[in-house]
Design brief:
Shape: elongated
Strand order of the largest sheet: 1-2
Number of strands: 8
Distance between the termini: 9 Å
Length: 1517
């Protein structure tokens, strides 16, 4: 029992709280064992205190150099005797090891109050608490009292007499000494035993508060027990004579012995002793109600309040004394600032905060309102208090300019940490503040925020809602530093972040499961420097990458779906060749690399993919490190053996592809020959014929120049057996090289038969080479690159001028290499020509790269070539000045098409404009001196006026208009006459354009509109190409004359006659036809115009599609004209070019093609014409015509999918019309489509799913709901288990349906994602029931669910987790987040159920899906989930998922006996003499704010914050 200390005992020192709220205590002086274990005498003051006082100065030199005191009631002093560690009621930082209370305090154990530890690692733990200010452990509850006390040995006081006495040599009688280890006990007022003990022992016992010896009375004949008398002999000896009534008249043996001898005697004896112990237990037990009250607050003056705060900062002043007058007005931010400024010890600051908080919270309850208002007010007050703490810490941290900043920051962080550990803050709000501070921190304050956050590291990572944000913030800062230009300056911070990330990868990988964040910062993590544990780190990164990829990629892992994904990625490479991330994504689509390689080969040889760049894309992919462990030669031979290629174009693609791989050594020619020999060799001459089988004709087509002599001999032997003449082949190659030399004007050998013949034209020679074998093409290309250009470079290598190659010769070599399509050799020629000093030659090289950009990008040579020519430009600019304009113009045209060179492109364009504004007197002026003399007088006058204008920085608009119209008039006069003066007019326009580009474009646009309306004029392709090539007319301006709106595209203008009626056909023809040099266009102009044509096909697909539709509309309306006119689309060559162009445009943008071609048109002839052309896209050999839904779906595969999409859109748009009949027809057509799709799914034809997203949102959503309904109906349940016969069929059907749903979901048509359906959640619950079933009846069903149905439904759920699905505003939906919350609870149950199947990885996949779904869960739904699972499971994964941490007070299960008020039954029981009144256990409300030590100055029987009745405490008498 707690009691007021007696006057003789020193004032009691402040005690620890029972929950550890006093996170530190004042130091305590050293005491002896007798002083620690025994209470002080209630009669007189102990002498030991005065004896120990001189030593306390060194021990208790506290923060304010005050002397601590220790005292207290007998009960509390006895509680300090047992060394019981306090298990703790709350989380608090563990920065010191707990000390047992049984250990004696020594100066070495007492920590100086001035040595305040830094914040350090003060991570809160739910474990034993320890403080930073005091070593003493908190006192949990009253323990058992020690039965025996062992005295400590004392140093005997030295007794040195002044005068030595004479030694007593007389014999001494024997005397029995009291053993030093004899137990002692308080005398309790009795007389001291008189024995033969030494006087020093007796004096020591008397000094120790009057101790006696337990039952030890040595016989000396003088003790009362030694005196025999009749009474002592009969009744025994008593210390105190009993009352007369209780004296035994006789021995008790006679009545007790028979009872004990009876068989029930032992039971009777135990009942007696049980009753005795029960009486002893209830004797002195505390039964009174708790009288605890928080210390009251009083109003004090400012002076008294300051004095009180200073006393609070003094550890020597008891808190019980301070609790009498807690001043009003100290709350919130003021309280924290006062504690900081007064340097109040942390435990006393927390005590003050508790006192203020307890009074504030009780104030709400005294208002007499309902409980909801009280709870809301209390929560609001705690939220406001948390905000004060956050502002306090942030203000102290930001005040880094103060001198004592470090000590203040340490104090503020420690105080906030202890408040957090005591659960005196709103933890959710505090954690959110911590993560937000780290997210929004700049790099200067990032180290401080990292230090603060690390204190609460473990608690943050245990909750999903905070841990995910914490990881995202750290990864964001790490990535920002990684990409920072001054990364070396931030090396220490980067290293720190890197170590934190590596530790997080080990401890909490689940926080990295966030696809949106992971794929954003993954590359910076993978590019980290090598460390000691790089292998384990790479494994962790790969594991997390796979888990995130599972939530984002398509999980319909059937083979058709994989092929479709690979083909889409390959098309992306073809469209955007400079994207380096696509190949990495391609190899990650599947672990089966052979299937990926086969799809690459099919894509490379497909006729639905035009162009030669695909060959180099495929070759580069197979040369990548990801395919290094695959036998590529065997894979190619298996492909050729399985696919009998019939089309000659596909065979040529195979020969070219194998030639590329054989040149680099990735295709083994010896292995191929061995494979042919193993098949029996070649005997039939048709097998080596150009139309023969591809697998045997390949032996003829392989590059011979790259083989060694033994391989050449073996090849010749195999071919001779098939009657193929190798000698004739060699002669043919030698003849071809001779013709090339003759054409290039290279001297021939004297005995060469072509020596005296006329050289063959380059055009004819190119045609012959194009029809030759791949072996001849590669040999000629090798000779041109290595033999001719390489020889020139080697001969001139000693000179520093580089290769001086004539421009005409280079153009001829380039034309021949382009004919052979050996771009690897062309790349080598470009590299050898870089060192040339001719700007015109270097400009031709840059134009070559620009025209064949996809090919060189596939080979990975674009950036290196551009950088080489750009460096060469800098040198030539210094050497030749304005003479470098051709090279500058070519580089300025190429740079905008390259990624990462935006700044270089802008600089090049600026330099080009500056050069064009230069004076006409410069040697490099676009209009040279001899050029002016070639013009007539009018042109000479215009040239002089422009040169005069060039000396000014700007020109007025009237002058520009006058010169522009004068030049245009001359240009129109030369139109169609093949006069070179037409080109000179274009040059004059180019020079005029520089002065005011915007006004010049306005004038040019008006003139083009005028040209469009002319009814009689020469063809467009004779006028506009020189203007476009010279830069006077841009593509955007050209397309401005084409129809863009739907009205212009669908309505034909009947007033357009003559040439105006075929304008769009001529523009389209001009963009497709090849150009050859002419007087109006040089070879350089033609090549530049080819670049513009290729650029238009790639960059202006949306502008060309309306142009094609308008051209078809003009062509279909030609029959309405009275005077027929020649139509450009009548030419077969133009039709072939249009079909090729349309195929390219559909591949570039299938959606734009579908929307443009499927527009409704009132002209039936136009509709029939578009139908015919789209059918030719899908079936090139078909004559055209309409296709039904079933036929389109049957033709759909990975390569025809874009064309099927256009065709299907066109079919749906054809039958769309207004009115009731039109709507009925549309509905009927819609039902036909649905039936066709169902039939295709049943027939295992799901390739068409890729074109569903391109359809209208109504169609795709209907198809999606239809497929989802069928998919969910197939999932089994315990109520309706399927039969064994339909298992495989249902699973196969479910996979196809999931592919359909996946295609619609990830296609992006209509609303991205809808909320989870209740039917889906019900099916998920059914699978949970099946997995939780213990019946053997469902064993086979459980196996099927585990192997098939659970993976399928988890794959279905990943559609809702992909970042491409887009965010969902669940609050705006009708059902809110209830359905998703129910799904999460079921997934949590499945995760625990799947722990019984450790061999399966489904448990982790289900947990990852739940993590992705819970991120968008509303707060009310999350709390609903918490209430559902709180009492059902204690799995830490579930707590992490729903972000809730259990309150430590809930684990105590405290309850106390509550006696009800006496009613009728209780009064009747009391009347009958029954003393036991029924008791009821009621839960004890654990109020954390009221866990205080020293609450009030009045000491009562039960005044502790935790009621002593909880522990059945007894009073000590």
């Amino acid at each position: 029992m707690t009691s007021r200390p007696p006057m003789a005992v020193s004032q009691r020192q402040p005690q620890r709280t029972l929950s550890g709220s006093g996170l530190s205590q004042s130091p305590t002086h050293q005491r002896t064992l007798s002083q620690q274990y025994l209470p002080q005498s209630p009669i007189r003051k102990s002498d030991t205190l005065s004896e120990q006082t001189p030593d306390l100065g060194d021990v208790a030199q506290g923060r304010f150099n005050t002397l601590p005191r220790r005292g207290g009631s007998r009960l509390k002093l006895e509680l300090a005797n047992d060394g019981i560690e306090h298990p703790g009621f709350s989380e608090s930082p563990q920065n010191l090891d707990a000390l047992s209370a049984s250990k004696a305090f020594t100066p070495s154990r007492v920590m100086s109050m001035n040595d305040v530890s830094d914040a350090g690692d003060m991570t809160p733990h739910t474990s034993r608490c320890q403080t930073a200010d005091e070593d003493s452990a908190p006192l949990p509850m009253p323990p058992r009292r020690a039965r025996f006390v062992v005295p400590a040995k004392r140093p005997e006081p030295s007794n040195n007499p002044a005068t030595p006495l004479k030694k007593d040599t007389r014999p001494k009688p024997f005397s029995l000494e009291t053993p030093s280890i004899a137990p002692r006990y308080p005398n309790m007022g009795k007389a001291e035993p008189i024995g033969t003990a030494k006087k020093k022992d007796i004096s020591r016992a008397r000094a120790d508060v009057g101790l006696g010896f337990a039952d030890f009375y040595p016989w000396n004949g003088g003790h009362a027990e030694d005196q025999f008398s009749d009474s002592i002999i009969k009744h025994g000896y008593f210390d105190k004579t009993p009352a007369q009534s209780t004296q035994e008249a006789s021995s008790a043996k006679a009545p007790l012995f028979p009872a004990l001898k009876h068989k029930s005697g032992l039971h009777t004896l135990s009942t007696i002793f049980t009753g005795i112990m029960n009486s002893r237990r209830h004797s002195g037990q505390i039964t009174s109600a708790s009288t605890f009250k928080p210390p009251p607050r009083v109003t004090l003056t400012d002076t008294k309040r300051e004095i009180w705060l200073k006393d609070l900062a003094n550890p020597a002043i008891s808190l019980r004394r301070l609790s009498r007058t807690i001043p009003h007005g100290i709350r919130g931010k003021i309280l924290l600032d006062q504690c900081l400024n007064k340097n109040v010890p942390t435990d006393r600051a927390v005590w003050l905060a508790k006192c203020v908080g307890a009074n504030e919270i009780r104030a709400f309850k005294r208002k007499g309102v309902n409980g909801t208002f009280v709870m809301g007010g209390e929560a609001k007050w705690i939220r406001d208090w948390t905000v004060f703490v956050e502002q306090f810490v942030e203000a102290v941290v930001n005040a880094f300019s103060e001198n004592d900043w470090k000590s203040k920051v340490t104090y503020a962080i420690r105080l906030a940490t202890h408040l957090y550990a005591e659960h005196l803050l709103d933890r959710d709000h505090y954690m959110d503040w911590l993560v937000s501070g780290l997210e929004n921190s700049n790099q200067a304050r990032l180290p401080m925020w990292l230090l603060i956050v690390q204190i609460y590291w473990k608690d943050l990572l245990k909750l999903r809602r905070h841990g995910r944000r914490l990881i995202s913030a750290i990864l964001s800062h790490h990535s920002a530093i990684y990409s920072h230009p001054d990364r070396d300056i931030l090396l220490s911070l980067s290293t720190r972040l890197q170590s934190l990330v590596e530790s997080l990868l080990l401890t909490s990988p689940e926080n990295f499961i966030n696809p949106g964040t992971w794929f954003k910062f993954r590359d910076s993590l993978a590019a980290a420097p090598e460390s000691a544990n790089s292998e384990s780190r790479s494994k962790l990164l790969k594991s997390i990458d796979l888990r995130n990829d599972y939530l984002t990629s398509s999980n319909a892992k059937s083979q058709p779906a994989l092929r479709s994904i690979v083909v889409q990625l390959l098309d992306s490479i073809h469209r955007t060749p400079l994207d380096d991330t696509i190949p990495k994504r391609l190899w990650k689509t599947s672990e089966n690399r052979l299937s990926v390689i086969r799809t690459i080969l099919e894509w490379c040889t497909s006729l639905y993919r035009p162009g030669i760049a695909k060959v180099y894309v495929a070759a580069t992919l197979l040369r990548s490190p990801e395919a290094s462990d695959i036998d590529i030669t065997r894979a190619i031979l298996d492909f050729l053996d399985a696919d009998a290629l019939q089309e000659n174009a596909r065979k040529q693609l195979v020969y070219h592809f194998v030639s590329e791989l054989a040149r680099s050594g990735h295709f083994s020619v010896p292995q191929y020959m061995q494979w042919l020999i193993a098949r029996g060799g070649i005997f039939d001459p048709t097998e080596t014929h150009p139309d023969g089988p591809c697998v045997t004709r390949l032996l003829v087509e392989i590059p011979v120049y790259s083989l060694n002599d033994s391989m050449k001999n073996l090849r010749a032997t195999l071919l001779r057996r098939a009657a193929f003449s190798v000698e004739y082949e060699s002669n043919d190659v030698a003849m071809a090289i001779s013709h090339v030399k003759k054409t290039l004007s290279i001297p021939l050998d004297p005995d060469d038969p072509l020596l005296h013949k006329r050289p063959m034209s380059l055009k004819k020679l190119s045609k012959l080479i194009r029809l030759s074998s791949r072996s001849l093409k590669t040999t000629i290309s090798s000779w041109l690159s290595d033999g001719f250009i390489g020889g020139i470079a080697q001969n001139l290598q000693s000179g520093k001028g580089g290769v001086e190659l004539p421009k005409a010769t280079f153009e001829a070599v380039r034309a021949l290499l382009e004919t052979t399509e050996e771009y690897a050799m062309l790349e080598n020629v470009l590299k050898l020509t870089v060192s040339s000093s001719s700007p015109e030659l270097l400009a031709c090289c840059v134009d070559t790269v620009n025209l064949h950009l996809p090919v060189f990008a596939a080979r990975g040579a674009v950036k290196s070539l551009f950088e080489a020519f750009y460096e060469r430009l800098k040198t030539i600019m210094q050497e030749q000045g304005l003479g470098a304009r051709p090279l500058l113009a070519s580089l300025a045209d190429l740079a905008p098409r390259l990624n990462g060179f935006e700044d270089v492109a802008a600089q090049l364009q600026t330099d080009l404009i500056r050069i064009d504004r230069s004076s006409a007197a410069d040697a490099s002026s676009p209009l040279s001196d001899n050029m002016a003399t070639q013009l007539q007088d009018a042109e000479t006058e215009l040239s002089e006026q422009i040169e005069k204008l060039a000396s000014y920085t700007s020109a007025d608009k009237p002058t520009m208009e006058r010169l522009f119209h004068a030049i245009i008039k001359k240009l129109q006069n030369y139109w169609g006459k093949a006069d070179e003066r037409q080109r000179l007019c274009c040059i004059l326009l180019t020079r005029l354009r520089v002065f005011d580009i915007q006004h010049f474009n306005t004038l040019m646009r008006g003139w083009v509109q005028h040209i469009r309306k002319l009814t009689k004029r020469p063809p467009i392709y004779q006028l506009l190409p020189p203007l476009i090539s010279s830069g006077c007319l841009s593509l955007s301006m050209l397309f401005a004359t084409a129809p863009r709106s739907q009205l212009q595209a669908t309505q034909f203008q009947p007033s357009a006659v003559g040439s105006a009626s075929i304008y769009m056909q001529e523009i389209l023809q001009m963009l497709m036809m090849p150009f050859s040099p002419s007087p109006a266009m040089t070879s350089e102009d033609c090549y530049r115009f080819n670049i513009i044509q290729d650029h238009a096909r790639r960059e202006y697909a949306k502008e060309i599609m309306p142009l094609i539709r308008g051209a078809l509309a003009e062509y279909s309306a030609s029959c309405h004209q009275q005077v027929p006119i020649h139509q450009p689309l009548d030419k077969e060559e133009t039709k072939t070019q249009l079909l090729e162009l349309l195929r390219r445009l559909v591949l570039v943008d299938p959606n734009a093609a579908s929307q443009t071609l499927s527009l409704k048109s009132p002209d039936p002839k136009l509709a029939a014409l578009i139908e015919t052309w789209t059918t030719k896209l899908l079936v090139p050999d078909d004559g055209g015509g309409q296709k039904s839904f079933e036929q389109v779906l049957e033709l759909a595969n990975e390569f025809t999918l874009p064309f099927c999409q256009v065709k299907l859109s066109l079919i749906l748009a054809t039958d769309d019309s207004s009115g009731s009949e039109g709507s009925e027809r549309l509905q009927s057509q819609f039902e036909v489509l649905s039936k066709a799709i169902d039939n295709a799914i049943d027939a295992n034809n799901i390739m068409w799913t890729g074109m569903l997203p391109s359809l209208s949102s109504d169609i795709t959503q209907h198809m999606r709901h239809r497929a989802e309904s069928r998919f969910l109906d197939l999932i089994p349940s315990l109520k309706n288990p399927p039969g064994d016969a339909v298992f495989d069929k249902d699973i196969y059907m479910a996979e196809n349906l999931l592919t359909v749903i996946d295609s619609i979901f990830r296609g992006g048509s209509g609303p991205n994602v809808s909320p989870l359906s209740s039917a889906l959640v019900d099916k998920l619950a059914d699978l949970w029931d099946i997995m939780g079933s213990k019946s053997n009846e469902y064993a086979s069903l459980k196996t099927v669910v585990l192997s098939h149905w659970l993976p399928l439904i988890l794959s279905y759920l990943t559609l809702y987790t992909s970042p491409s699905a887009g965010p969902i505003d669940i609050s705006k939906l009708s059902g809110g987040g209830e359905v998703r919350a129910r799904a999460l609870v079921i997934l949590a149950g499945l995760v625990q159920e799947l722990d019984n199947y450790p061999s399966s990885n489904l448990g982790q996949k289900a947990f990852d899906v739940a993590l992705a779904l819970v991120d968008g869960l509303p707060e009310d739904a999350r709390l609903q989930c918490v209430r559902a699972v709180r009492d059902a499971t204690a799995d830490p994964r579930v707590r992490y998922l729903f972000s809730y941490a259990p309150n430590p007070a809930e684990a105590f299960m405290l309850s106390h006996r509550d006696k009800p008020p006496p009613g009728i039954q209780e009064r009747r029981a009391l009347a009958l003499g029954m003393t036991m009144i029924p008791e009821k256990l009621t839960p004890f409300v654990f109020r954390r704010w009221e866990i205080l030590n020293e609450p009030t100055p009045n000491v009562g029987e039960n005044d502790t914050s935790l009621s002593l009745t909880l522990f059945d405490a007894r009073k000590v008498k």
